[in-house]
Amino acid sequence: MYCKKTKNLYNKSMTNEKFSNSPEKLDFNLEPLALENLKEQYNLTVKNKELLKQWLPWAEKVNSIEDTEKFITESLEKQAKGEMSIFGIKKDSKLIGLIDIHAITSEKKGKIGYWLDEDEQGKGIITLATKKILDHGFNALKLNRIVLICAARNEKSCAVPKRLNFTKEGILRQAMLLNNRFEDVELWSMLKEEWINRKI
After folding, report:
1. Which range of residues forms the domain containing residue 51?
2. Measured torsion, CA atoms of residues 154, 137, 147, 50, in degrees rounded to the nearest 10
3. Structural domains counted in the chain
């Protein structure tokens, strides 16, 4: 059901790719999202729900495996329409998170979203996965502009675009409602020409 152009992209091991702030070797795959991962994805979401709902409004709404099934089905439908490209992050064949480009438009723009199992954070995985999804967005999807939006108080998430030399375009004041509190969000962007000519 997923788009043919995304099938099997980045499913080669990234073993031995080194990340500057981590002494560990990173070994993970980006694999197309599939319904066969339903139970694993639901269990991972439940495991991390308290952490996720601090920063991601959708997490509070995941109360059953049917909610995760609906998310996967809708994501695959959007992907088939060219509106989204979504991957599971897998380590040793185990799902540890998700990363995507969504809100893809005919103007060649898209937004990055991601989340990672708490046990795998702090290892450079999301930063490297973001590099891979940028390659995919600018090359396979032919996008020209990709943005990343994060709650301003979510320092870990906002560190990713900064580390990858995105341009910070500004603060969107009280643009996100989280846990009955309006949060400022940071808007970061990367252009295709910038990514091609990057020095990272």
Report:
1. 4-196
2. -30
3. 1
